[in-house]
Amino acid sequence: MGFGDLKSPAGLQLLNSFLADKSYIEGYVPSQADVAVFEAVGSSPPPELYHALRWYNHIKSYDKQKASLPGVKKALGKYGPADVEDSTGTGGDSKDDDDIDLFGSDEDEESEEAKKLREERLAQYESKKAKKPALVAKSSILLDVKPWDDETDMAKLEECVRSIQADGLVWGSSKLVPVGYGIKKLQIQCVVEDDKVGTDMLEEKITAFEDYVQSMDVAAFNKI
Amino acid sequence: MAGVIGPGLGVEELSLLEKSLGLKKGNKYSSQGERKTPVLQANDGPSLTGLTSIAIHLVKQAKKEQLLGNTAEEKAIVQQWLEYRVTQVDKLSTKEDIRTILKDLNSYLEDKVYITGNNFTLADILLYYGLHHIIADLTVQEKEKYLNVSRWFNHIQHYPDIRQHLSSIVFIKNRLYNTH
């Protein structure tokens, strides 16, 4: 939130585009929000920023009623477009939050007993883990392989892709998905063992068929 | 069509105006002639004819003279736009006419919050009522093209007691691209 530095051209530009479809900073009546921004702007915006200028002149007409306008003045950073980072340093909600360590413990030093207990538990956990049979981590990957144009032979392309052999790589079902203009992409499923095959290696091998393959994306990646 | 006032439906518009001014119902209207000019049937004295005359009369009846303009200049602007409403807006027939009017209004409203500038007046109310069926038919792109009109219209429709049963028209700023 916020307009940045309202004295700078960039800040005014932001204000200008913000006010293009709005009469006031907040809602449909003049409020303290307008007063706050008005005061921050300070002087008349240049004529080419006519939205800002219109608003400025309009708020100026409320000069005498300024104090009686509804609402409570907030920090300047609370107003304006939501997609702009507050750089005024006044609206520092997020900064305040940073100071609070939600997960911090009150005591800086663990008591001796607690330490012992923790180590014990850790050891227990380690031994438990060691007993478990080592599970092979596998992932199911859905790949999108895009051809160059509608004349690319998709059957051949699929053949090429399936010709890639590696330890821990199993090809699954595939289908052709229309992309548009008669072009279809190949969507193919495969299961890999995480330790042996990575997507980088897959991409490298698939894009190596550069006669057929324009690009390759990972559409979905699921751990099994 | 529900929630929309068509052109020339002066009588319905006047009852909207009555309500927005906080007047009690009691005035009787009829319409006259081919263009359905509204007529206010007075209990005593002569009857009043024409949208603007009746509207001004109602404003005075409601003791809200500030709606007719505070300064001499403002009063003149209000008069001018009321006239514009009846002679231009109500006579719109072709798409070309509508485009011209919207274009004019758009550039006029570029540096104004209300029709007269900084104060809400009867001109805003009657132009809002008069343009409602036109704005309601605009496409998203057109609304964006006539940005100043859209801003003004959206502002007026949020003004307390003005819109009443008329449909609220949605305005969105196209967020697909950034203007700045």
Can you describe this structure?
- The complex is a heterodimer of chains A (224) and B (180).
- Chain A is built from seven helices and four strands.
- Chain A has helices at 9-18, 32-41, 50-60, 93-99, 112-131, 154-162, 199-207, and strands at 138-147, 169-180, 183-193, 213-223.
- A four-stranded antiparallel sheet of chain A has the order 2-3-1-4, covered by helices on one side.
- Mean pLDDT of chain A is 80; it is low at 89-98.
- In chain B, strands 1-2-3 form a three-stranded antiparallel sheet, covered by helices on one side.
- The radius of gyration of chain B is 16 Å and the shape is globular.
- Classes of the chains: A alpha+beta (224), B mainly alpha (180).
- Chain A: InterPro entries: eEF-1beta-like_sf, EF-1_beta_acid_region_euk, EF1B_bsu/dsu, EF1B_bsu/dsu_GNE, Glutathione-S-Trfase_C_sf, Transl_elong_EF1B/ribsomal_bS6, Transl_elong_EF1B_B/D_CS.
- Chain A: GO terms for molecular function: guanyl-nucleotide exchange factor activity; translation elongation factor activity.
- Chain A: Residues 95-112 have a biased composition (Acidic residues).
- Chain A: Residues 102-129 form the Elongation factor 1 beta central acidic region eukaryote domain.
Helix content of chain A: 25-40%
Strand order of the largest sheet of chain A: 2-3-1-4
Compute the CA-based radius of gyration of chain B: 16 Å
How much is the average pLDDT of chain B? 84
Quantity of strands of chain B, as a count: 3
pLDDT under 50 segments of chain B (min length 5)?
A: none
Give the overall form of chain B: globular
Indicate the proportion of strand residues of chain A: 15-25%
The chain-level structural class of chain A is alpha+beta
Rg over alpha carbons of chain A: 31 Å
- N-to-C CA distance of chain A: 42 Å
Q: What oligomeric state is this? A: heterodimer
The main β sheet of chain A shows up as: 4 strands, antiparallel
What count of helical segments of chain A does DSSP give? Answer: 7
Distance between the termini of chain B: 39 Å
Pfam families (chain B): Arc1p_N_like
Function (chain B): Positive modulator of ATM response to DNA damage.
Domain GST C-terminal (chain B): 57-176
Organism (chain B): Python bivittatus (Burmese python)
